[in-house]
């Protein structure tokens, strides 16, 4: 049996069987987001074809999934190579009888100054982050159309780069290419372009995220704003209401501007409404809801239940088509 994974994340929850009987292909599956996605899909009941060009991370993702009681096959394949995407689809059909989900996760950048990279390096970025996705979609969509259904998700480097990073050549072409491409796919196939800004969830990264937020507060204070609300606050929320309060109070004193986080803003709203007891309705699923409920209870409220909102269509906000 594979060794237990030592870097569990709160969002990597136990499955509810929502993908039972489905077959998923995941590229870049042996590390990072792809690895976590493969494990979560397997926990939800899917049979997973784990595709990656590297096998150095141990335990290998398919071994880890099988050790957790799931079903997975590993395929060492280069998604940028001719025939690579077709091999992925053929493997899924031969091993599991079909394909229901394609998740395009493989991607990457080159750490160089913009004036230093070569044509070959630029072409590599385009091949990995855009062309490989087009070829993978081209390989799987005929199968989806034949069976009358299918799901495509695209994430990784190709979608999170809203803007560049100094010293790194990244696929910041997303708005004009991949998003447009997803709109052109045939009806009957659900396409979800995933805008990713994921961190590993370590203490060091929490500290880094909080430091970045503080630097933004300092910048805004110089402009004389009346209030700063820090959005996207899991690194703060996961440390509890007391930590949140101490941080915002310190920032308020230091920069002479009222500072709240999104969660403390909600707490203040509840108090203004004289709320004491509540049921939380949440679009988020899994362990993060329990963390939020604990935060609210630490603020002095009673949470009697958490209802996860399921079956919500995010197609419009994700710029996708789902029929």
Automatic annotation (TrEMBL):
InterPro entries listed in its UniProt record: Iso_Racemase_Enz_sf (IPR053714), MaiA/AMDase (IPR026286), NAD(P)-bd_dom_sf (IPR036291), SDR_fam (IPR002347)
UniProt keyword annotations, A-Z: Oxidoreductase
Source organism: Geodia barretti
Protein family according to the UniProt entry: Belongs to the short-chain dehydrogenases/reductases (SDR) family.
S-adenosyl-L-methionine keyword on record: no
Molecular function per GO: oxidoreductase activity
Protein name in UniProt: Uncharacterized oxidoreductase Lmo0432
Pfam families: adh_short (PF00106), Amdase (PF17645)
A Gene Ontology term for the protein's cellular component: membrane
SUPFAM superfamilies cross-referenced by the UniProt entry: NAD(P)-binding Rossmann-fold domains (SSF51735)
Domain of life where this protein originates: Eukaryota
